[in-house]
Design a protein that fits this description.
This protein is an alpha/beta fold. It has one domain: 4-Layer Sandwich (Metallo-beta-lactamase, Chain A). 35% of the residues lie in helices and 18% in strands. Helix 3 crosses helix 5. The protein binds zinc ion. Zinc ion binds next to loops.
Length: 333
């Protein structure tokens, strides 16, 4: 009898669960995602099933990626001030796109280069100086993905500060294609091939280790990151999602890949005790609101970026709502 027990157990326990999962409607999936990620309203458009996912007819006027009709760059926040958000993490972005600097005991790891050389000079070089950091300490430039709003300022940074430039192999290859996926006259030129990062690799600089994961979907080799931060006596862990929008249109397989990446990264984030969700667009992760709160934060008040377990909800939203989009495409809607 014993050999039969295992298959029977599988039949009873697992088959109904699978059937239930595959029967869930796109609407129910999207609602589940919205609920999980309620703390992050900047992600909610991913769950909007009412509009078709379509490629824009012309590139958006703004220099940042936009998503289905939502302006990517709020006019009022274009000149966002640089801001120290943790003891070792600094926001250096514009209102439309973020660059983050991780300060380590042996120099600075920079995440993304903004749209163009002008922004890199003003917001990254100028931002670091305003915050009392030395841009000559930049050792690494991690580019999350092969879109110009994230690499466009690299030329100035590479020529001036000579950091190693890191991208995934898949996204280096994207930049070597005859035509870029998206182009925009406001974006600077792509970087020359440098360091190619593999999934699960880490970079260590002084006292800091940054984990890099290849999370394909937004681009074939989008990098998402996990790294530690501190706030006084408190330690926290950031999970930074490297590419959010689905401006590439109704490509069902690509969206399923996106969903699988978000689900996998959510599980890694849970294992690594991630309690801070971050993005490379300040409208996505709530950075615009959080940075405003720093201006009036009293000592001892909680850090507005720390979400605790709710941080995982952002990845659950991305997982469930992208899957909802794929399902509705499959159903012909
Ligand atoms: Zn992008």
């Amino acid at each position: 009898m014993k050999p039969l027990l295992v298959p029977l157990f599988c039949l009873i326990v697992f088959q109904p669960a699978l059937a239930a999962d595959s029967a869930i409607s796109p609407q129910a999936l999207a609602e589940q995602g919205l609920k999980a990620g309620a703390r992050f309203p900047g992600l909610a458009d991913i769950c909007d099933l009412s509009r078709p996912l379509a490629l824009p007819a012309t590139p958006p006027a703004s220099a940042t990626e936009s998503t289905q009709g939502r302006p990517a760059r709020p006019e009022t926040s274009a000149d966002l001030e640089p801001q120290k958000v943790f003891d070792n993490l600094y926001f250096l972005g514009t209102g439309g796109v973020a660059s983050w600097a991780i300060k380590t005991s042996e120099g600075i790891i920079l995440i993304d280069a903004l749209d163009n050389n002008e922004e890199a000079k003003q917001n990254i070089e100028g931002g670091l100086e305003k915050l009392g950091l030395n841009p000559h300490d930049i050792r690494y430039l991690i580019i999350t993905h092969a879109h110009g709003d994230h690499y466009g300022g690299q030329e100035f940074l590479v020529n001036t500060y000579k950091p190693k430039v890191l991208m995934s192999e898949a996204d280096w290859k994207e930049l070597e294609k005859p035509e870029l996926e998206f182009s925009n006259p406001d974006w600077g030129i792509p970087p020359k091939r440098d360091v190619s990062v593999k999934d699960g690799e880490t970079i260590t600089l002084g006292d800091t280790v940054v984990q890099l994961y290849v999370t394909p979907g937004h681009t074939p080799g989008t990098l998402s990151l996990i790294f530690p931060v501190s706030d006084g006596a408190e330690g926290h862990v950031v999970g930074l999602w490297g590419g959010t929008g689905m401006r590439f249109g109704p490509d069902e397989q690509r969206i399923r890949t996106y969903s699988a990446s978000a689900g996998r990264f959510r599980d890694i984030a849970e294992q690594q005790s991630v309690d801070v969700f971050m993005s490379n667009h300040p409208a996505r992760d709530g950075a615009l609101e959080a940075i405003a709160k720093f201006k009036i934060r009293s000592p001892g008040e909680p850090n507005p970026f720390v979400a605790g377990h709710a941080a995982l909800g952002a990845f659950e939203l991305l997982r469930d709502c992208s899957l909802a989009q794929a399902e509705r495409i499959q159903q012909g809607n």
